[in-house]
Amino acid sequence: MYPLKFNPILKSTIWGGDKIIPFKKLDIQQEQVGESWEISDVPGDESVVSYGADAGKNLTQLVEEYKGALVGESNYKRFNGKFPLLIKFIDAQDDLSIQVHPDDELAMKRHNSMGKTEMWYVIDNAEGKAHLRSGLKKEITPDQYADMIADNTICDALADYAVNPGDVFFLPAGRIHSIGAGCFIAEIQQTSNITYRIYDFNRKDKNGNTRELHTELSKDAIDYHVENEYRTAYEPKQNEPVDLVSCPYFTTSVYDLTESMSMDYSELDSFVIYICMEGACTVTDNEGNQIKMQAGESVLFPATTQSLQVVPEGQVKFLETYV
């Protein structure tokens, strides 16, 4: 197998901005694109290969055809033949609704779906004016939570962060969160589209209707534990991997390269995804397959990949994630 690129799946939203199209260098006209789904196996939103021998096939078809050779033998068994990650770029011109996602047990019980644990990497912050919410900053009970939704004070209980490029937030299932205005982020998450909308700032659509809230569903899904800090601490470095998140659903590192680097995946039984956020590079695998990658692109390397050689064009910054 060889490295795979996919056509982006663009999502227009009421809170979307104007960064995704130029960031991805797409020659189209589309307003308020809030999300670009880069690699997706969500039913109805399956990513389609953009070039090569498998061009036109979607990710579901690829997993069915290549099985463990694509995703890794253990992953193929663990996730019942489903691709386990969903990769997105998100551009928020306005605050997203406050949300929570159920864990695997609750999502399977209610929706026959995996839950949603995810992480964010902040790419841009609208000239220093971006913020987001992650986690509770004070202890509340489920009943108090419901009361705070009813009287429009739920934001008073949430940790609110001014953010800068490079900030990282890990969001295990059950953690209340909201991407705030000005955030342009890369998101890595479980393959799940189950979201409980907690609060939407009483916004109305073009027909004057407010969006549905899931107060009762979310009450049992929330993790009410309070932590002192929700931002992930790490030390940025050049020309070496920097570990960001390691959890049962994905392991993610960031690379900021000005020099060539060899990557050894010979002991890894998993696909690997690169999500490019700055600059450009050429990547060559152990079979001699070569692919160029630039900011705004994501590349899926199959589990058969033994090694990669990354040669930056001056400088390149990307996330590496696998299961």
Gyration radius, rounded:
20 Å
Overall SS class: mainly beta
What is the general shape? globular
Unreliable spans are none
User: What fraction of the residues are assigned to beta strands by DSSP?
Assistant: 35-45%
Main beta-sheet strand count, sense and barrel state: 7 strands, antiparallel
- Overall pLDDT confidence: 96
Helix content: 10-25%
The end-to-end span amounts to 19 Å
The number of helices is 7
Overall strand count:
20
Order of helices and strands: EHEEEHHHEEHEEHEEEEEHEEEEEEE
SSE diagram, text form:
Layout: E1 9-17, H1 20-23, E2 33-39, E3 41-42, E4 45-46, H2 59-66, H3 68-71, H4 73-78, E5 85-91, E6 98-100, H5 104-111, E7 118-124, E8 131-136, H6 142-150, E9 158-162, E10 168-171, E11 177-179, E12 184-190, E13 196-199, H7 215-219, E14 242-246, E15 251-257, E16 261-264, E17 272-285, E18 290-294, E19 298-301, E20 307-322
Which keywords apply here?
mainly beta, 323 residues, 7 helices, 20 strands
Characterization of the model:
This protein is mostly beta strands. It is built from seven helices and 20 strands. The strands form five sheets. Strands 14, 15, 16, 17, 18, 19 and 20 form a seven-stranded antiparallel β-sheet that branches. It has a six-stranded antiparallel β-sheet with strand order 1-2-5-12-7-10, with no helix packed on it. It is globular, with a radius of gyration of 20 Å. The two termini are 19 Å apart. 43% of the residues are buried.
Brief summary:
With 323 residues, the chain is mostly beta strands. The protein has helices spanning 20-23, 59-66, 68-71, 73-78, 104-111, 142-150, 215-219, and strands spanning 9-17, 33-39, 41-42, 45-46, 85-91, 98-100, 118-124, 131-136, 158-162, 168-171, 177-179, 184-190, 196-199, 242-246, 251-257, 261-264, 272-285, 290-294, 298-301, 307-322.
